[in-house]
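If you are new to this repository, start here. Below is one unmodified record pulled from the training split, so you can see the exact layout before writing a loader.
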Amino acid sequence: MKQDQFQSLMMPVMKAIDGKAIDQQLADDLNREFPPQGDTFKAIETACHAGIEAGWMCAHGDEGRRFGRVVKPVPETCNLSVDVVQLKDVVGPHHSHPAGEVCLTMPVSPEAKFDGMGAGWCVNESGSAHSPTVSNGEALVLYLLPGGEINFTR
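And here is the target side for that same chain:
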């Protein structure tokens, strides 16, 4: 799996998000269209593990908290960035989402939760903020940001 292949894999998801409000309805739609037991979810999960192993995904950080942007927000990606984080029993840095955030939780440990949620899609609406938390083990979290916008609290 190479970065350009990963971007192509993400295109159906990016197109499903394009032009929609970043809200609970979008999370419901994504969970219905790309459920954890579905082919797209499994392909994304497999690709994330392959990208991490290849060294181009989650290339920054340290044990328990690795991260990296793998798709830039450009017109070809519906102006969405894609970042992936690998978190293990950690509370990440507080940040806000000026235009919202669409997250895909992929538990590595069977009981792992991201912000209290297991496998699947969740949405943080425009203007929301949080300290991303993974509990009960390790999870990969893929998140899409309109315009790539994220503001870390100092």
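Two things worth knowing about this chain: The radius of gyration is 14 Å. The chain has one domain: 3-146.
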